[in-house]
Specification:
GO terms for molecular function: DNA binding. With 372 residues, the protein is mainly alpha-helical. It has helices at residues 38-53, 57-64, 71-81, 88-97, 112-124, 129-150, 156-168, 184-199, 206-216, 220-225, 258-265, 279-292, 302-313, 318-325, 350-355, 362-371, and strands at residues 2-8, 14-24, 27-35, 231-232, 235-238, 252-255. It is elongated.
Amino acid sequence: MGTITERRLKDGKVVFTAQIRVMRDGRKTSASSTFERRAAAEAWLRRKEAEANKPGGFDKVARKRQSGVTLADAIDRYIAESERQIGKTKAQVLAAIKTYEIAALPCGAIRSQDVVAFAQELLDGGRKPQTVANYTSHLAAIFAVAGPMWGMPLDPSEMKAAHVVMRRMGITAKSTKRDRRPTMAELDKLMQHFADKHTHGRSMPMHMIVAFALFSTRRQEEITRITWADLEPGRVLVRDMKHPGQKIGNDTWVDLTPEAEAIARAMPRKSERIFPFSTDAITASFTRACRFLEIEDLHFHDLRHEGVSRLFEMGRTIPQAASVSGHRSWQSLQRYSHLRATGDKWKGWPWLARVAPTDGGAEVVALKSARK
């Protein structure tokens, strides 16, 4: 009853089109969808065949065959015409949604039940409720603009109703606050590992990047965008700083700790950017090192969390910490309010002198650069 056809696109990518044909009482209908993986096409085919064999299955398949643009069409147009740059994570999620059955449905045929079924499929596939919530949140953006902007019959009220059901049924859940902080022993191991590899010319200076991330509290993608022109005494211009409602053009000046400035100025001027490396390369290197050194559950982003925690432990107020971290909402920093002013545990850290060698430490470098 169903077939899978393999097809090669112009760019060389291979896709798999699954098609099902159904006949009942002399009536015919069909449905098809294209996937990047054969396994996904086979799974779709099994679902469709099971659906068609149920009572009323023919009418359901026929309904989904209605004319009109599909959700996949709406996703494609959203990506193509959005004036704001779509973040890497959001783009990946939207591309993943297109491989599910819901993407093949006509916009006018999608009901809250379809959205809930899609979310349940994600959950059954091993994704956590927090991840499912992330997927449906990005999908909701399509529902919000497709009708008013392009006249596509996606009903936002159906998405809203689906959200209520998913929350109450536990299909989606709020993300939990991650509180992992690296220990000094763990960072000592990482720094030694990265320094040894760089000394032998086998990698980028990850020890410099790790130290800068810790003392600057900057995110990975922000670090890779900083240019020498963005660096001034005591502060740095962070381009396209992450913000929930603004992906590009959000350039913000933030304070730079003396340690972070010293590390940045210790980098060789080989490029317009201070850290001319890709985020993918940094992530891969950090992940491999943690695995090799048997450091469990440590992410690069945890360095930012450690850096912000350090500021509060040094006795900084929320406004003072925000001037470094770049948080626009001070409420986001309330999670650190339980930290007591116990001092700077990273003061005198031997690795700081190694990544930013000076006659008197990072503070001297900052003062010298300010006088230039």
